[in-house]
Amino acid sequence: MAERIDIDGVSVSPDHFIGNRRVSSPRTFETRCPFDWDRKLADVALGDADTAKQAVAAATEAFPAWAALSAKERAAYLNRLSDLIEENKEKLALVECLDMAMLLESLQLRVISRAALNFRNYADLAVEHEERVWSSKGTLNRVIRMPAGPALIITPWNAPFMLSTWKCAPALAAGNTVILKPAEWSPLSASMLGDLIDEAGFPPGVFNIVQGGAEIGNALTSDPGIKRISFTGSVPTARVIGRNAAENIVPFTAELGGKSALLVFEDADIDAAAKKAAGQYDDSGQVCMAGSRVIVQESVKDEFLERFNHYADQHVLGDSMDPATTVSAMIHPTHVERVLGFIERARERGDEIVRGGKRWKEGQNWVEPTLIMPRDNNSEVVQSEIFGPVLTFQTFASEEDGVALANSTQYGLSGIVYTGNAERAERVGRQVRGGTVWVNTFLVRDLTAPFGGIGISGIGREGGDYALDFHSDLKTLQILE
Ligand code: NAD
Fold it and tell me: Cys-Cys link to 126, which of 173, 204, 368, 436 (CB 3.0-4.6 A)?
């Protein structure tokens, strides 16, 4: 067991959490603070095939007893964990901020509480949806949710705590044991979850956390002991995981990248739409659902751009602990280089960089909020997810053209539409390709609604009883009445 680390007064374990014990690895990897890159936060255990075996063994051993509990009994554990997350909100917010650079204020005010709510919500939903019973054709019918087995949850580096809890809660509530593998660039808040799982009294092996990257990821996704794989991350990794899942015939959900349109009609509240568009630079654009393609009706182009620039000018780049900051640092220098590469290639092909386009300060992890007017719709900056503070700007003449532009990528995670016309809201809302489409708003979520992507944005749906279905083997039992 490695020594615990003190991060600004918060004690964090750099180890795995398997069977409610801390387990170290011979090798480690570094995690650094994105907005203070010289600051190393921890050397974290680098999991391998052996770690994967230990975690699967612990989750397999714990499964029968956890699965045998009623949804109500499991809910008591989830609710305790939810309370502990709330009680430890300040500590979790601080560590997540230092490790991932999400703005401290937003973590304190919203994000950590939403993570707590994920457990509470699934505690209730699993009780509500435990069984369906009805009579038909002279038989009593029951749909029984049978827990599937150990579930593997793999998460990306952006919004690590919120996403981990969003994905682990339904698995646990459905009666599966869990192995969570967070991403290497922001591993620390998930490690803190291990302490809270222990404190909440979960039986050993029910909820395990392993650290590392592709090596342990491959070992886990190939292990026949894993009965569900729930992945959030990039398209290339999904392809690898999907092949391993296919080998073992294991159900697999994938929440992947996006390149969502923010479609603005001339009848919209242009000021509100422009403000929302400038808000897409929040978290340095490292948001899967970001409306990164701004598509505006030609007739209001000038008015929109004037208001957009007004709001974009107000952004403050800086330290994520500072309440004045609105644009956080990007996660890692490698990612900064990747984003700058997109901008450079766009410049070379003749796309017009109308705002930003450079690293903010030499040697640091910010890219200026950037707006690009592409020469045409085939530009890489229009067609590929950049996952940085880079928006494209295009215009359209008719509603039909606007919708066609919005739907012209391989992605389909979400969409944002601004219009003042209720009929158009319904019509265009239905036509825009995306698992979630918001009209005149953004990121409002009801946790019982399905969430997922179309096309290369993903497979399957999370949220509500959709995630409970995924984590269960549904059985129909019919008894002659
Ligand atoms: P990534 O695919 O590089 O990594 C995601 C996770 O997969 C990490 O935990 C990583 O360690 C793990 N991994 C890598 N190789 C693996 C392998 N061979 N086997 C098993 N696991 C492996 O993605 P990322 O860069 O961490 O995250 C950014 C991406 O995530 C973006 O595309 C973003 O849009 C997407 N994302 C999607 C959603 C959504 O809900 N749709 C939410 C957040 C992020």
Answer: 173
CA distance linking residue 402 with residue 425, whole number of Å: 13
**How many angstroms separate the CA atoms of 16 and 326, rounded?**
33
CATH number at residue 117: 3.40.605.10
Q: Ligand 1 mean position to 54 CA, how many Å? A: 23
Confirm whether 449 is domain-assigned.
no
Residues 468 and 400 in one domain: no
Give yes or no: 266 in active site: no
Structure tokens that stand for 135 in this block? 């009579």
Instruction: From the candidates 96, 184, 255, 385, give the one annotated as an active-site residue.
Output: 255
Best of 152, 232, 330, 342 to mutate for ligand 1, by most ligand atoms within 8 A of CB?
A: 232
Rounded to an integer, what distance in angstroms lies between the CA atom of residue 343 and that of residue 85?
40
Residue 348, CA atoms < 13 Å, CB-side half-sphere? 7
7 DSSP β-pair partners: 10
pLDDT tens digits, residue range 174-216?
999 999 999 999 999 999 999 999 999 999 999 999 999 999 9
* ipTM given for this complex: 0.97
